[in-house]
Every structure is written in C-alpha cells, then in structure tokens.
Design goal:
CATH topology: Rossmann fold
Shape: globular
Radius of gyration: 18 Å
CATH class: Alpha Beta
Structural class: alpha/beta
Oligomer: single chain
Distance between the termini: 27 Å
Strand content: 15-25%
Low-confidence stretches: none
Number of strands: 8
Mean pLDDT: 96
Largest sheet: 8 strands, mixed
Number of helices: 9
CATH superfamily: Alpha/Beta hydrolase fold, catalytic domain
Length: about 300
C-alpha cells in the first residue's frame, strides 16, 4: 500500500495527520472525512481501491483522533465545531495547491457527514461531487443537546467525561439492536468488524465533554437548511447507507436528510440503501458492492 504521510498545520498550530494516495494525473482528488471515535487507517482499503481506479485520495485524522492526537477523543476545550470545519478547509486548500485545476470530491462517513454538511453551507462550490455514507439524521432536539452540553461543560470542564452526554449521544444506537452480543453491534452485521473495532485502542474511546459540545453544535447547525449560502444547485450528492443503520433514523430520518438538502436547493440527489447492512457499510461482508457503487457515482 503506497501513500505519503503529510503533517498539515491548521488552526491553533494543530498538526493534522494526512495520508495521501497520489497519482500523476488523477481524474479527481477525493477528500475523506471519517467518523466519531475512529481513525483514518480504517479507510485505507477504500482509498487504495479508489486510487487504483484513477483517483488521488486524501484521508486525514479528525482533530482529537488517531495515533497522533494530543488527547485522544478530545477535540478542543471550546469552539471545537469551528475548528473541525476550519481543518477541512485547510485540507481542501492543501489539495487545491497541490493539484491545480483538478476537481475535488468529498466523501464522508457518520460524524464526518455532519461536519461535511456544515462545511457545505459555506463552501459547497469547492466540491464537484459529494458522497455521504452512514449519514446522521437531523435531530429536532439538537438545540437541547447543545444547551445540555454547554451546561455540563460549565460545571465539569471540557476535558472530563460525562456518562449523561455519552448516554444521550450513543444510547439510542446501542439499544437499536435488541438481541445484541456487544453494545457495538449497531456498527455492522459483520461480527469480525465489530471485534476489530473493540480491540483497536484508537477506536471507541469515549468523547470528552468538549468533544460532545462540538458534536452537538454541529448537529444542530447541520439541520438548518437556510444556512446554505451560494450553493451549486447541480452538485451531485449521494446518500448511501445500510437499511438497519440507526444513525440515519430509519426511513423517516433518511427522508429528512434528503429533504433538508432539497430545501437548501440541491437538485441532483441520489440515494442507495442496502438491505442487511448497518452503519459501517464499508466494513460489511458485501463491502465490494458498496465500494463499486460509490465508484460508479464518482465516475458518472
């Protein structure tokens, strides 16, 4: 597996850890944004697949994630939601400087889709295509979660952890699988994938209060379709997920996600929902079909 390691300075002198799967003349450059409590290495197989099909790929660790995080699962003491957006803007700037006049595609998973939809509210014209995997549904009570997160942070501090916030954020996903062997069965039907996640020291490390505060702020902003400004209405968007993914909010939640983008002005939205798959569709046993479908979307 050939890739180049890149350390990119972002806001507050934070060093972002990037892996660049390069090509001399790529069809496009795909900027990947991973999910909550995981890391970029989990996307290397998919990045290599896209690379072999003519695309350069840049996959990075989110702030507070990965082996080089100063404090694992701690995004920031304050305004982490703004820092996560600025980090992706810096990565896009790096891509544009390195690959002149090559289109940039955005691929995101889970929490990465929350970040991406907020990013698209101001920067949508920078991305020629957008694919959102395991896309989290807009939550009507996210404003309450923001208030609660701010309150807990005020009393306990940003670097501590909170059972209350963890239960609020993760409890519904755990409970979505009734006859579960582990509390992480909601990730996928593929038991080997769940086992690897549990055994990975860089995965599943509980968010700090500061990180939950950032997450709740982003989730709240993501659902406000009126915040999308000066968009390219013809940008193709793919919403792709497992039918049994609790993060999408089932049929109603998936429809709400699409509806918000339609109301924002996007006209070219396609949806693929897989039977017998949960949240991590790129790690299910039939992942080859998922990768092929995403590739076909990028190739159109």
């Amino acid at each position: 597996m050939n890739f180049e390691k890149v350390a990119l300075k972002s806001v507050n002198d934070y060093s972002l850890s990037l892996a660049l799967f390069d090509l001399e003349k790529p069809k496009a450059v795909i900027q990947m944004v991973h999910g909550m409590e995981e890391h970029k290495e989990r996307y290397y197989e998919f990045a290599e697949y896209l690379n072999k099909n003519g695309y350069a790929v840049v996959v990075s660790d989110l702030r507070g994630h990965g082996s080089e995080a100063p404090i694992l699962s701690h995004i920031a003491d304050k305004k982490g939601e703004e820092l996560l957006i600025k980090d992706q803007q810096e990565i896009t700037k790096y891509i544009n400087n390195r690959y002149k006049e090559v289109p940039v595609y955005l691929f995101a998973h889970s929490m990465g889709t929350i970040i991406s939809r907020v990013l698209l509210q101001t920067d949508s014209k920078k991305y020629a295509k957008v694919a959102l995997s395991g896309y989290v549904n807009p939550n009507p009570i996210s404003g309450v979660a923001v208030f609660l997160g701010n309150t807990v942070k005020l009393f306990k501090g940003s670097k501590k952890k909170s059972k209350l916030l963890t239960s609020l954020a993760m409890g519904p996903f755990t409970k979505a699988v009734k006859e579960r062997k582990t509390d992480l069965d909601w990730l996928s039907y593929n038991e080997e994938n769940v086992k690897k996640y549990i055994e990975d020291p860089l995965c599943g490390v509980e968010f700090t209060i500061g990180s939950y505060s950032a997450l709740f702020h982003l989730l709240n902003q993501m659902g406000k379709y009126k915040k999308y400004k000066d968009i390219n209405k013809d940008t193709p968007i793919l919403l792709i997920s497992g039918k049994d993914d609790p993060c999408t909010g089932s049929f109603k939640g998936r429809e709400d996600s699409k509806s918000k983008l339609v109301k924002a002005g996007y006209k070219d939205i396609s949806v693929i929902t897989y039977e017998n798959m949960r949240h991590e569709i790129l790690n299910e046993k039939d992942k080859e079909k998922v990768m092929k479908d995403i590739l076909e979307f990028f190739e159109k």
